[in-house]
Structure formats: C-alpha cells, structure tokens
Automatic annotation (TrEMBL), chains A, B:
UniProt entry tagged with the keyword Lyase: yes
Documented EC number(s): 4.3.1.19
UniProt cross-references to Pfam families, sorted A to Z: PALP (PF00291)
InterPro entries for this protein: TrpB-like_PALP, TrpB-like_PALP_sf
Protein family: Belongs to the serine/threonine dehydratase family.
One GO BP annotation of this record: D-serine biosynthetic process
Keywords: Lyase, Pyridoxal phosphate
Positions of the Tryptophan synthase beta chain-like PALP domain: 14-301
Protein's recorded name: Threonine ammonia-lyase
UniProt cross-references to CDD domains, sorted A to Z: Thr-dehyd
Species whose genome carries this gene: Flagellimonas maritima
PANTHER family membership: SERINE / THREONINE RACEMASE FAMILY MEMBER, SERINE RACEMASE
Cofactor: pyridoxal 5'-phosphate
This protein's record includes keyword Nucleus: no
Amino acid sequence: MDKHKLIECHERIKPFIHNTPVLHSRLIDGIASSTIFFKCENFQRMGAFKMRGAANAIMQLSEGQKQNGVVTHSSGNFAQALSLAAQSLGVTAYIVMPSNAPQVKKDAVKEYGGRIFECEPTLLARKTATKKIQQEKGATFLHPSNDDAVIIGQGTACKELLELHPNLDYVFAPVGGGGLIAGTALAANYFGNNCKVIGGEPFEADDAYRSLLSGTIETNTTTNTIADGLKTQLGDRNFPIIQEYVERIVRVSEEEIISSMRIIWERLKIVCEPSCAVALAAVLKEKEVFRSKKIGVIISGGNVDLGKLPF
Amino acid sequence: MDKHKLIECHERIKPFIHNTPVLHSRLIDGIASSTIFFKCENFQRMGAFKMRGAANAIMQLSEGQKQNGVVTHSSGNFAQALSLAAQSLGVTAYIVMPSNAPQVKKDAVKEYGGRIFECEPTLLARKTATKKIQQEKGATFLHPSNDDAVIIGQGTACKELLELHPNLDYVFAPVGGGGLIAGTALAANYFGNNCKVIGGEPFEADDAYRSLLSGTIETNTTTNTIADGLKTQLGDRNFPIIQEYVERIVRVSEEEIISSMRIIWERLKIVCEPSCAVALAAVLKEKEVFRSKKIGVIISGGNVDLGKLPF
C-alpha cells in the first residue's frame, strides 16, 4: 500500500459516500483542555464509516466477481454497509446472520437490499453457511476489517479530516476488528504533518492493546463492554499496519465510555454509538498528556438502539 | 420591517452565530414521500435558534443600554441564549428564573456567564423580580419572542436555509411564543420563491392554531405536552406577522411528536428537542398534501435531558 492507492481509493468511492461533517465544541475543548475536531461518520450513508471500506472492496472486484455477488458474515454495521454499497453498485450482497440477531438489524439489511441467510449462532455454523454461499453462488467473501481494500477505504475518513485540518497532532479512533484504526494510521502517515494515531479500546475488550504488547494477535478474554462494535479481534492484514503506524492504545473503563458518550450527545448534539465514545474517553483519560494539542476524533457510527441507552 | 432589515440583521449577527448545517435523509424522504431539508439549529451556539434573536436584540441597543445590561425571565433556551450572546458582546445578562427550575438549566446559564436571580415560581414574582432589576440596574428587558429584533434574528435561520435551497415549496417550524415562526415567515416571504410557511403545534398547546381562527391572541387551555418549548403564547408583535405570512398551522398528537422525534434521532443521527419533532410530525400528518414537494424543516434546538427521553 502507498499514498497513491489511498488517493485512488478515495476518488473511486466518492460518488458513493458522504464527505461527512466535522464538528467542534468549545465546551468539549474546555473539558479536554485541547482542541478536538470530530469527524462524524455517524452521518455517513447507513450510519457508519463501514460504508467506505465496503464500497471500495466491491469496486475492486472484477466484473465477473461482481456478477456473482459478495458475501459476508456480520450482524453489525458491515452487514448494512455491504448491502447498501452492493445495492448502489448493482451487485448482490449475501449476508450470513445468526438467527438470534436483533430484528432491527435484519430489517436494516433488508432495507438496503441485502439477502439474509440465517444460521445457528455458532462460529462453525457461520463459517459453513458462508462457505456454502461462496460455492453455490460463486460469491466473493469480503471480511469486515481484515481486507486491504476495506482498510484503505476506512482510511478515507481520516484523509478527509486532514484535508480540513492539516495540522492535527493526533487522531484518535476506536479499535475493534482493526480496519478503521489501520486505515486511519495509514492516512495520518500519508497525509498528516507528523500526525500520530492513538487507538481507544475498552478494558473489557483489550485484545489490540495486548496484541501490541505481545507482538502477536491476541483474542479477547472478556467482551463485557457496552461498546458492542469493539468485541472483534485484529487480523493478519491490519495487525502489521497497526504495529507499524499506531502510536499506542489507551484503554478505558465502561464508566469512562458512558461518560464520554453523554458528553458527545449533550454537547455535540449527535447520536453516536458507544464505540465512538471510546475514542473521546481515551483523550479525556490522559488529558494532561494531550493538553493544548490539536486532536481529531473519528466518530465511527450512529446506529444505536434508542431503547437501550445507558442514561 | 422589510427585506433589508433582515439582510442587515444577518450580516450583524454572523460573527456570533453558526451557519448551521442542513441535513437530508433519503430514508426520511421515503417515509414522507417528499424531499425534506432539515436546518439544524440544534448545532447552533448554546444549542438552539434563540442565539440568533438574542444576539440581534442586544446589538440593536445603544451603547448606554449595553453598559447597563439586559434582563429577561426564562428558564429555557432564551435564558442561555441571552447569557451567551451578552457574554460574547461584553454585556451583563440578568436572568430571572423560578427557584424550582432544574439545576441543569441554572448551571447552563451560569456556564454562559448569565447572572441568575431566583424568584418564587409565580407569574407575579417573576414580573416583580424583573421590574426590580430593570429599575436597580437600568437593564433593558428583552422578551424571548415578542420583540421585533428577536423575531428578525430568528428569521435568519430560514434565510440561510433558502440560500442553500432557494426553491423550497414549504418551510415548517414549530410554534411556541411565535418568534421563530414569525421570523421564518418573513424570511420565506422575502427570500423564497413562492415558499409557504406552515406551523406545527401540539394539540395539547394549540393557542396559535386557535388564535389564527379567532383573530385574537388566545391562551393555552392545556400545556400537557412533551414539547416543553411550545407552552408559551403568541404576542402582539409576532401575531400580526403570523396572521399575514403563515399559511396555516397543523396540530399533532403527543404520539405523533414522539414518533417523529424517534425518526429524527434514528435517521438523522442528531439529538433534538421534542419541540423540533413537532414540525416533522406536521409534515408527516398530511403527507399526501405535501407529496413530492420540497420542504424545509427548522430543527429548533437540541437541549434535551437525556435522563428523560420518551423512548
């Protein structure tokens, strides 16, 4: 990967994504003792940054591959992203979802034209169902985070942020499967002015923190976090990028996540997922370290169940 | 009032307000069967359109008046708006608030530099306290909605919306004290291309609807509505403007308000007050009437108690 690949990717997906707004709050600056610009991917199409990587991954396929469709297993934002990106590009998306996935998630995928295949809620059933669709339909499997085209696509959010604010000292992003933080780190490296990237991760799902320490991909020992988008683990495509380009990872508690989420909702007046709040929580956790710095925070998505808010 | 007064007002207050973003959602368009552009005054400074009118009203004062400060009675957004506008302009703001006002509202006023005078929660006590400050401090009383400078200031939100989308068929705004709807109606008349303005009002606080019918300012018989910003009544400065320039008022139920609020939060991913949802609820209530039209909706503010959401 290099700078030009990310530039080409951005040009390629521009017709299918929003250049999302960047918000700023003097009151949050006051709380943080720094200047923070929030890149609001909750306003992205289908409500999350995942639209970027999904669009890029599909567009990188050959015409023959596109005709046979794409398949993924996800009950989260990537399922919606792949469905909408595929619909926008005239491609069929097959989504393998566990039978116990919330109805609202299934409805969202259907709304965007995704074709759902339900399976038992086990890892084996999920893999078997996915394999079957690959074989029967000839569909191409796309991974939500461990795919070069997806990683580069996710990096375009940070690229847009740096186009508006070229002199950021830091960009913070949450760490889940690793696609967003890896893409963000590449973009900051290519387009920033000595801009460092720091990940935010819940103590309750700190696989990436421990992976950076041990030098090998670790799994989560618990996933007891409100940040439900961050329960996944890193992969062999994104981990080397994270090792090379991510400064470090700051872990935060559930209380810190909820408190930061409340700050974002109350002060920025936006609806965001708990996962997004992890990045702000990381800034606030070490506010003395980042005092007076210019900081970007990636607000990763806004698909939240309003019936299950923590406040 | 004329077109040039509104243009001058807008130029005057521009350094003190945000030109707030306009959001659009294909999914909401699908629900409404029309094209809706949301002018997001929840992103305005202090979180509501009231900043516009407050800034304009203070800037219209003489130097001598500014030195003696301004006073209002409000426990809502105008208290915060007057405090922040005054602070930005180096003027003292005295805010008369009932002693039983929520602590969070008092804190917000203090945060913006307003000086709070508490009074008993009665109309008489409020008026007495206000009068006392006018006499003792020489402060100028500014009304939250029944003041020409305030009305014109509120109209700048619709002016900005029409600058982006000049061919709107309709603009919807909620009707509370009448300042926003009157200013919106003036702006649509001056800057729209045959753009009609329609008010949204809860059945439970339908004083303006009845005022237009009877031709005289009516009071609310109930104020049992979740839209707590809309419990006030019209005044003699804004009522004639509303009579002349507002097409009509559509009343909506509490269920319709909550349902529309949920649509805004879930689809636009923004935090807004129940009052804002009244305007969208009015569009949806008569969606057949407005089918295929280009519609603006003023999202009036985002200062909501996250601990008391209706979902």
